[in-house]
Prior knowledge:
By secondary structure, this protein is an alpha/beta fold. The chain has helices spanning 4-26, 41-58, 78-90, 103-116, 144-157, 171-186, 205-214, 228-237, 282-294, 301-320, 325-332, and strands spanning 27-34, 61-62, 65-73, 96-99, 120-122, 137-139, 162-168, 190-197, 218-222, 246-250, 270-273, 336-339, 342-346, 353-365, 368-380. The strands form two sheets. Strands 7, 8, 9, 10, 11, 12, 13, 14 and 15 form a nine-stranded mixed beta sheet that branches. It has a six-stranded mixed beta sheet with strand order 2-3-1-4-5-6, with helices on both faces. The protein is globular and about 65 Å long.
Amino acid sequence: MIPRRHILAALALGGVAASGAQAQSDTIKIGVIVPMTGQQASTGRQIDAAIKLWMAQSGGKAGGKKVEILIKDDGGVADTSRRLAQELVVNDKVVALAGFGLTPIALATAPIATQSKTPMVVTAAATSIITEASPYILRTSFTLPQVSVGLAEWAAKNKIRKVVTLVADYGPGNDAEKYFAERFLLNGGTVADKLRTPLRAPDFAPVLQKVRDLAPDALFVFLPSGQGAQFMKQFGERGLDKAGIRLLATGDVTDDDQLADMGDVALGVVTSHHYSAAHPSPMNKKFVADFQAMNKFRPNFMAVGAWDGMRLIFKGLDTTKGAGGDALLAAMKGQIFESPRGSILIDAQSRDIVQDVYIRKVERVNGQLYNVEFDVQKAVKDPGKLK
Ligand code: VNL
């Protein structure tokens, strides 16, 4: 006969184990890693705000379970992001990782996703190669080749013959320079010089002097979100606009996070990108209104990438009833849905985003600067994957 106290002890243990498992399976955790401090802090602030909005709108539930978001600050440092990802996967048992504000960070963290079979949704970083760094990576942001090619075509069609390119000297900058220049040359243009500035603490004065001396019809620029305002100020101070040099850029430079304070120098700047706070769809109008009711700033493309990233994960969890791993990965591949930016597809094969790319011009709308869309290329796949 088994002594009564043993049975009681076993029951108690079983009870603890059962209620522990219960508590665990009732709550699903998603780990978000973003820069909340340092040079890219605005990216973390936008992503954090967008996720709070998503949680309020969705009721914080997916697959019939409560979802908890664990948001971590990597300060823009790759080693920190990698360590945080490891902790989130091992200790917190997150079903998915999301965020990733800079390309080197996404690339450094990719092996953690692969080893632990944890889906990793890149909502910000935008170098073409990222989705190839792990079969568990999906992307809801964009790629630089995706937004650079159409602008090169627009320039060639609009009497721009000679350009200089200027990019931040790392992954997305290399992509922007390469794909813009290739397409521009193919359309009969010439590229007088290819200039680069460091990612950390760039000084635009020397390169802008060089651009002035080269006197191109236009300067094409890519800089990561957060550097646009400083660049624009110096572009104006050095009189490049007055010298008749047109400014063309990816939308990262006329970022909605900073655009309102850029002043008249930004007027008329032509950019290409996948999102503008001025996108005239009913869904975007509601998104911007809801976002601004919660925050004192406008949503930018980082906010939309994160909001769509949450939606992608939540819909996936609805399908898997809260399970992660390969089941969640499969449930996220091939999703098609309407975003505040327009309709998007997560290509099942590449796991990268297919989306419309808009050509926009900075204009004053009701007294405020906005990127006003005037042309669109539909359903653009990342040209970086076509080679
Ligand atoms: C990246 C690309 C970062 C575009 C950005 O802002 C951006 C990246 C922080 O891949 O590192 O606007």
